[in-house]
């Protein structure tokens, strides 16, 4: 049993904010009915622990009422009804964004009314009024694009009014939002761009937006682009069933994007009210902005809006304790997950490596490629990348010289797989038994193993790893080629490689930007999509089914071989940790929280397409915490000196790479104390 009251289990403690769009029941021009429908949805959102609730444009009156917007009775009814919603909000947790037409100094504005905790916080007018094709908004409304440092009187209360408002929670750090309305996001320069640069992490759009063929895709494109470009979350809510269909139709689309990633989407054309809920990671947004000088440079060009925009503080009632996490959390953040783009994404990842290796062959004018083939995942992937590079350059496959070098722990199975793979791919293959040379070296240095003692320490392992690399470099010199490195991104993160004269070194590290989980997936993709011959595909699948092992220590009396993952942890967890630490700088407690939600239940969530059922694992928090502690120690305090001296290799994933010339720069003698302390203090 978990203690759900522990702060660790509360999503708000990790920087998440629960947002929702709502398409309530609508009655054309019936303000009282629309008020009641809005409040019904607000109560439903309260029960769902929502923090920010976005309604459609002009939701109090309904949007498609044409000249009825200019009727005095309608204008007064809308304003009066706002007071009812303000009073009701005192008992509700969400901040409410309600659409309403409001009069100010003889002009009518299409507005978003911001309400929380029994208070009217402010009013934001629409900047860009569509007046083309089916739209005639300039007939009724005035543009608010020049409204700054202004106020508006609503039911006798003066509140901030303008397009220069950022609403900031006094309880949840980084919960800051900006509001725009419908057409604003269709503009060449949406107001929300300045809102984001003024500090808003969430951009909300109250929209009516009638539906025509293809418009849903257009909304997705705009919202995704704005969330990515403005480095924010974008919450979009369109009007739905109940709006007038005199000349138009409505689909009630709700969309939530974060940094270009789709978090949630409502059912379209629903006859019932839709509540589209997602948890936005405001801390992730802020951390991403910290990594982007371009974002801050744009703020400078934009005259630093954070200094000219007004901040409207508010208090609301965020739920405490474990309220779950409503957002997709990928178990395999490095692995392509878009089902409709799966083949294209795998093709792209694979050919990034192929193209990098091709360019290196061309620039060095090499006469051969030299690769050590172990029968394991990394060397297998490096070999098929090299084979494809040769194919594209018009070189024969025997341009590649593959060497299998059995040592003291090499199993018959992996040795057999190595030979089958080299034969199937059609390269120049050779075997060099390193045991005689290793025995001589162990004798020369006075190691106990040379005297017959079963001492299988790091020195014993490194003698073998070093000899293999030494042979490969000399062979590359002999055959006028270069050594293709096989080590991957996961091993670099953990320091699971032999430094210098070992598998850490090569002439070109083709796998250095590819983590273990992606290598597994790309091999499976190659084996199931006719990328190579049937015999090659068969051996690729056999290698995928083999235990991951360095095979440097002889098998035990029970036949058990050396297990990498038993020593350093499951690669699927380590790659998860690596992504969130390297790409976003997330705290260990946040990483543990995300991992717990991603991995605690194998039956929940989605798995990569074609993922084997027998490999669908689940992990308890205690297991996640234990391996995360080891990861933090290895990543921050142990392995950087190995990464600081790695050879060239192509970056493959947007999550980053660990080259000291690219995404990651760190001192080799750092301490992991602050990360370990944070983990100890905040994760039960």
TrEMBL record:
InterPro entries hit by this protein = C-N_Hydrolase, C-N_Hydrolase_sf, Gln-dep_NAD_synthase, NAD+_synth_C, NAD/GMP_synthase, NAD_synthase, Rossmann-like_a/b/a_fold
Question: Pathway it acts in?
Answer: Cofactor biosynthesis; NAD(+) biosynthesis; NAD(+) from deamido-NAD(+) (L-Gln route): step 1/1
- Keywords per UniProt: ATP-binding, Ligase, NAD, Nucleotide-binding
Sequence ranges assigned to domain CN hydrolase in this UniProt record: 17-282
Record bears the keyword ATP-binding: yes
Q: Its Gene Ontology biological processes?
A: NAD+ biosynthetic process
Where, in this chain's numbering, is deamido-NAD(+) bound? 462, 491, 496-499, 642
A GO molecular function term, named singly, is: ATP binding
- Where ATP binds, per the record, is at 372-379, 486
Key word Endoplasmic reticulum present: no
Active site residues per record = 57 (proton acceptor), 126 (for glutaminase activity), 182 (nucleophile)
| Annotated EC | 6.3.5.1
Catalysis performed (reactions)? deamido-NAD(+) + L-glutamine + ATP + H2O = L-glutamate + AMP + diphosphate + NAD(+) + H(+)
**Matches recorded under PANTHER family:** GLUTAMINE-DEPENDENT NAD(+) SYNTHETASE, NH 3 /GLUTAMINE-DEPENDENT NAD + SYNTHETASE
Alphabetized HAMAP family for the sequence = NadE_glutamine_dep
The function of this protein is: Catalyzes the ATP-dependent amidation of deamido-NAD to form NAD. Uses L-glutamine as a nitrogen source.
Family label = In the C-terminal section; belongs to the NAD synthetase family. Belongs to the NAD synthetase family.
Return the protein name: Glutamine-dependent NAD(+) synthetase
